Amino acid sequence: MTTKHELILAYIEELEVGEKISVRRIAKELSVSEGTAYRAIKEAETRRLVSTIERVGTIRIERKKKENIERLTYAEIVNIVDGQVFGGKGGLHKSLTKFVIGAMQLEDMMRYTAAGNLLIVGNRYKAHEYALRAGAAVLITGGFDCSDEVRKLADEYELPVISTSYDTFTVATMINRAIYDQLIKKEILLIEDIFIPIEQTHYLHQKDPVSRYRELNRETGHGGFPVVDDQKKLIGIVTSRDVLGKENHETIDKMMTKDPITVAFKTSVAAAGHRMIWEGIDLLPVSDEQGFLRGVISRQDVLKAIQTAQRQPQQGETIDDIIKTQLNQQGNDPMTMEFKVTPQMTNAYGSISNGAYTAILEESASRGLKRNNRKDAALENFTVYFLKPVQMDSIVTIKSNILDITRKSAKVEVEVAEGNNIVGKAMLTFQLLDR
């Protein structure tokens, strides 16, 4: 049976890209409460089906594929620059291919402006008009207005004209930062990228007999299955341990684990993997905000995804990426690393920040650990001592020593030196990941 929540999401997905929606409209057209409509619209926003813009409303947008996530829509530009839309609201769902800064003569400016571009310019009315006729949207900086003619053209061509109080340099910096952040996001694997959807998932109903569990177990070889109610809301999980010694006629709801650990679409694959290791489970149900089962994720899926991601080239560098590239093995000893403290690693006082410092120690210890036992490791506990400040441009040596190692965990001591001086020490405990 399809729920009202699912009906609303299906309705939103069928809307034309660019169409405006509201809580009141959906509540009226689908005969549901405004609260139900509001919750469904919020989930649609999470799924990137709609975008809500201040002073404009909520519009249906094209769901962007993972590989194209670095292309921003004009709706996202409005949010980034705290903008006001003067015209062309019907085109807010469109993506821009590049932005052009209008800091030149009009003829030269138009030579660089083409369809799908965003022209960033001040109060130059002719430039606004020419850009729209060329198929480009306009972002007016400095809080300036535009002419009535430009507003009409924007509505006619469905190309947004946006105004912001920021100056041109600040706006360009903000958009560049947003594109760079999107590149980083593109490389972070989320559950929504790899989960097995409910249509391909084996699950049990609460009143199913144990014989049904055993039948699915023989068919699939899986040891655990989610348990749902009549509306497909997740209410539990059942594993081979739960049914051990039970009679075939007994119902699943008598022995299942209630309120199981779940993950959401936006949970990172790494976080889900760590959770599965800590809890000692091989299967996690994927649920939405309303508690409906949307699919499952297995430990094998998570580890395979992490291994694949590690082999991919990276486009947007985080602090962790910079640390990994600048951390070098010293000589032939895999347990000794060398690192130069760069300006982006420092705090306001010119010494290495606590975050960068701990990231360097963790990476050094886990790298040495992997080269010794050929296993990936997940940090479980970390105690660090900052003995002396480490200044910018300092070259530090990080020496790791494995104190104890078993099949499932390892304890590593780390010593940090600058020249002949010990500047820090740490003790780290890792859980080792079985493949």
Q: Could you characterize what this model shows?
A:
This protein has about 425 residues and is α+β, with helices and mostly antiparallel strands. The chain folds into 4 domains: about 5-60, Winged helix-like DNA-binding domain superfamily/Winged helix DNA-binding domain (Arc Repressor Mutant, subunit A, Orthogonal Bundle); about 65-185, HprK N-terminal domain-like (Udp-n-acetylmuramoylalanyl-d-glutamate--2,6- Diaminopimelate Ligase, Chain: A, domain 1), CATH 3.40.1390; about 190-305, CBS-domain, CATH 3.10.580; about 320-430, Hotdog Thioesterase (Thiol Ester Dehydrase, Chain A, Roll). It has helices at about 5-15, 25-30, 35-45, 75-80, 105-110, 125-135, 150-155, 170-185, 190-195, 210-220, 240-245, 270-280, 300-310, 320-325, 355-375, and strands spanning about 20, 50-55, 55-60, 85, 100, 115-120, 135-140, 160-165, 195, 205, 225-230, 235-240, 255-260, 285, 295-300, 330, 335-340, 375-385, 395-405, 410-420, 420-430. It has a 6-stranded antiparallel β-sheet with strand order 16-17-19-20-21-18. The protein has a 5-stranded mixed β-sheet with strand order 4-8-7-6-5, sandwiched between helices. A hairpin with a 6-residue loop joins strand 16 and strand 17 (about 335-340). Helix 2 (about 25-30) packs across helix 3 and helix 6 (about 125-135) runs parallel beside helix 7. The longest helix is centred in the middle third of the chain and has 20 residues, at about 170-185. The chain is flat, with a radius of gyration of 27 Å. Residues about 65-70 and about 310-315 have low confidence and may be disordered.
